[in-house]
Amino acid sequence: MEVKILMKLMFASDIHGSAYYCEKMLEAYEKEKAERLVLLGDILYHGPRNDLPCQYDPKRVIKMLNALKNEIYAVRGNCEAEVDQMVLDFPVMADYCLLLEGSAAVYATHGHIYNENHLPPLKENDALIHGHTHVFKAEYRPGSEQNPGYFLLNPGSVALPKENNIPTYGILDKGIFMIKGFDGERAAEIKLRRTE
């Protein structure tokens, strides 16, 4: 089975109100020529456990993202609140976004509810992509009696990476998921295809 997404998608997570990194993310989006930007939550607020990110300016982030409102799919992170939806011109309060092509699914969520320890409904060779941990990941998880085999993807954090990682985003194009840094570094890559 192969995941075939017809569009080139960019995935980004955990901007946390950083105007500096939001601008870098949007520059990468334009450079990548992706057709949609999928935001995996924690867009405006830095959160009580995080330090203030570089150029913390949620109002500027709002303005930059609202300009692309018709190109953004977004899910709710643990830092989103109803007030965020009041200022953003695209939906941000859904717990997940399901991208389908044929019988394959890419389940996009923030990661604070559904993650590798609490899986959403997945079939064999589907993909779960989430942020939340601020640590990038691209791997295949073999199935067990309780769960099917699936792809576990995390684009890392745009503004507040952890574990000495660089700020990163993900690109899904022609069945390949790549994690990249803003200076063109390739941090990880995986082909979303399993042959039995």
From TrEMBL:
The keyword Metal-binding applies. Residues 7-173 form the Calcineurin-like phosphoesterase domain. One of its GO terms (molecular function) is hydrolase activity. Its cofactor is a divalent metal cation. It is an enzyme of class 3 (hydrolase). Its EC number is 3.1.4.-. Keywords: Metal-binding. This is Phosphoesterase. It comes from Murimonas intestini. The lineage of its organism: Bacteria, Bacillati, Bacillota, Clostridia, Lachnospirales.
